[in-house]
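Q: I'm writing a short explainer about CheY chemotaxis protein or a CheY-like REC (Receiver) domain for a general audience and would like to include a description of its predicted shape. Could you first generate the structure from this sequence?
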Amino acid sequence: MNLKILIIDDDEVVVFIQKKLLAKNEISNNPMVFKSVSPALDFIASEDGNKEFLILLDINMPGMNGWDFLEELSKKPDKDRFHVIMVTSSVEQRDKEKASKYSMVREFLEKPITNECCKKMKDIPEISHFFVKV
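A: Of course. Here's the predicted structure. Afterward I'll give you a sentence or two in plain language.
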């Protein structure tokens, strides 16, 4: 089983920063980037069921938003292989509460992510084994 990293965000500057930090913190040198939800859902559907996904997800995007994405993921029978990090500029407590209702949401981070955020990602119990140094 391996871990695929996806960034779903329509802000090119945010994506650039996230890619740099993911590489610097040895999480991923080449994450898949999607500027909208639909192509990301299509990509996930096309992948075999033997992969897990770490998904950095923005809430506010044009068209389908992060909440729509979570709704679609929550319908999947194998949703335990999706590990979503909400990365948002929202500081609304109700957004954090709403995110906590989805079993696949592992963390809620404010933009921009930092090295400390990357450390938190690597320490998430459900995926930490992917980052163990041998």
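A: For your explainer, you could say: The chain has a mean pLDDT of 93.
Q: Perfect, that's easy to follow.
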